[in-house]
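WARN retry 2 of 3 for item q-0093 after timeout on previous attempt; input resubmitted unchanged.
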Amino acid sequence: MRAYSSRNPNHIAKYEDEIKWKVGEQLSHCPRSVLIFDEIQSISEQLLDSIIEIFDGSGPPLSYHSSELPVDTSSCIVIVISDIGSTKLNPYMDREQAKQAVQEDADKKFIHSKKRALLQNIVPFLPLTEEDFASVAIKELKRLGDTLANEYKGVWSGKLTWSKEVPRWIAKECWSEMTCVSDGGRGIETYIEHEISGLVDSKLIPECSTSESVSFNNIDLSISNDGSTLVANIDSVYSDSEFGEL
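OK item q-0093 returned
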């Protein structure tokens, strides 16, 4: 909804017509649609009221130019997404505490809205805990392994492995960065993509360029002895003595 953020009355009137047209078009084709309005905090209170009127029956019947009959809005599901109240949330709140924090900020944000009382069915999404970050790190490391297998296909057939401390270490690193915490799981994704991917490439590139055939060696991630850094090492699948025996 960021594209509808202007407070200019002429712009708001245009936004109202555009949104009603889009909703009418969608519901005329599929009355049981799920309609998602994202970043609702960006719009004016007047536009918010106009959107709610589409669905609460207090406004004029919704129409769509290809049909002479009013569009039925009673069968659709409307989901409104916002970051209102997010700065007051913490991972260890219960749902009622979180709901109250969001409701308080919503009431302050839409203080002049005639329809704000309808924004009662709030489902708060609590921030991820450090333990959640570790779970996301495992998934992102697996995805990095799949990406590397595709990028180095034909020259490397090893695997990306890691010690059990690595996901928790990544979680701790990201947990200490406010920007990473605010991004949630995307913060972990960004960290692994920017930091760990380059670290692994620094080992894989020379490994694949010096090997005369496909390398089957693994890349293993571990934590340094002092716990301060993440390190990547070549984990040889075969030793020289094993090749000698063959």
